[in-house]
What we know:
The protein is α/β, with parallel strands linked by helices.
Amino acid sequence: xxxxxxxxxxxxxxxxxxxxxxxxxxxxxxxxxxxxxxxxxxxxxxxxxxxxxxxxxxxxxxxxxxxxxxxxxxxxxxxxxxxxxxxxxxxxxxxxxxxxxxxxxxxxxxxxxxxxxxxxxxxxxxxxxxxxxxxxxxxxxxxxxxxxxxxxxxxxxxxxxxxxxxxxxxxxxxxxxxxxxxxxxxxxxxxxxxxxxxxxxxxxxxxxxxxxxxxxxxxxxxxxxxxxxxxxxxxxxxxxxxxxxxxxxxxxxxxxxxxxxxxxxxxxxxxxxxxxxxxxxxxxxxxxxxxxxxxxxxxxxxxxxxxxxxxxxxxxxxxxxxxxxxxxxxxxxxxxxxxxxxxxxxxxxxxxxxxxxxxxxxxxxxxxxxxxxxxxxxxxxxxxxxxxxxxxxxxxxxxxxxxxxxxxxxxxxxxxxxxxxxxxxxxxxxxxxxxxxxxxxxxxxxxxxxxxxxxxxxxxxxxxxxxxxxxxxxxxxxxxxxxxxxxxxxxxxxxxxxxxxxxxxxxxxxxxxxxxxxxxxxxxxxxxxxxxxxxxxxxxxxxxxxxxxxxxxxxxxxxxxxxxxxxxxxxxxxxxxxxxxxxxxxxxxxxxxxxxxxxxxxxxxxxxxxxxxxxxxxxxxxxxxxxxxxxxxxx
Length: 635
Ligand code: 7RM
């Protein structure tokens, strides 16, 4: 039996038991047998959640790009590492082999060095989903520079904040980007940000849309000529297992974004191991994650996890709606995608368009479907299962966070029986706990509480860049000796977990704790409803009452709103009980979402509470225009 590749449920339980009874022995074996180390560790794990301090594989030396690229060259050098699918379907896809990737990463790494970037320096990457993004990430890792990828949909202010927080010496960007039918002036956004970033010495500019842009003398350099001149090999910098690999910003409900710091050895081991098992990746498979590399999902499951396993990973530049809503399925058919990983927000957007687009394409290559980012509502789950997976491809509902680096609670497909809306079982090595309000662990099944993790895992973030105290306060102070996730969860009769959402989203109505996810689930089952979000607002009698924001499908538009309100409350009453009925239901053209697809409930709470004087940081909003619309029509 190989602990590296789990294929049955009994095997899962067996390996899980081993991983929690003797974590050090377990992870040592995984690390030893499946990765390339320049020197082995002196100590597998040391930890103290009170400081907090966690070290995995201390004393070990490695370079993660040797694991992602070099070690594959003699066995699968000509295999495609990255398939680049451009925004415009008329433009040809690119297949980059492991050999080619090696050369491209080495050349890029040499350019970084020539530009004065050294081990430990921070490099900000602000690029669209083009090959240069993955290559520049790996080039930083090759020379031990710390990458800080900023999603190329963020504004110049958001970009400047992140550049300054990490005092980046360099920015890597492009002349512009394609997004559906639009082009975006990325370099202009960078120029604006840099009026405020004294730490930046140089800017590398990739050509993508061939527009005429401003190049600042002495600061800005076109990338391609430098790459052409650079040497094709670059000796990897040998890193300590606990050296930082990257910083990635995540925005909390308050305060400035937190620069989560991930280190090298443990992150590599855990992302590779989860990738292998959660997608059941086999040598000939083509894997596609639709996330942007600007998010943790892209870091761990487009770049590092897949490449560490010698996989073929698809990078898609475009959007699901261009040139039409069939684009995802066209790509699945074209590249014969075997594992497809996306977010509930995308699934709902596609479901809203009906099944005609799906029917035009052959999706029979799909073996595993994944979802991540939010609780997936029951209707979306079934739509995905019925129409995309044709009830033959298991859905892995993977719960995890930027902070956790890798998947934490997830089925292992073909081993763990799935259950709609449940992330199911903790992954190997993960020890969850549900806590009550008094800080006590709730044991047993059929319970709900706040989700914590009791024991370190290899890919956990080690600190917040420049603010260790905030790291401690945010994650290790709510409960003694535990990592607090900020999410609520319930555990069913067989020990499956269902994530009910952020605990700030639990609303207490007349003394009853109501999670938003189950209520939204009920509402979304109404045939006219596309999406919904619930928040609480102050109520004289109940303490809080419920306010629902509902967007309708095309088929629901034009229907009488009062009737719809009655029908929605009827469904809620049937499925949850009259206590969860909504006092107010506002029909909206859309819901305010972050650029990673999460509903920004903070804003909806303020509008429901008639407190709109200061909406807080809205720089990460994808669709700021709906906020005004919702405010104008608030009830
Ligand atoms: C990977 C990612 C983290 C937050 C997390 C949850 C929510 C993510 C699921 C989920 C229910 C899931 N990182 N979340 N996955 N909720 N089911 N499968 O999304 O840092 O951007 O967000 O996202 O609230 O705490 S993240």
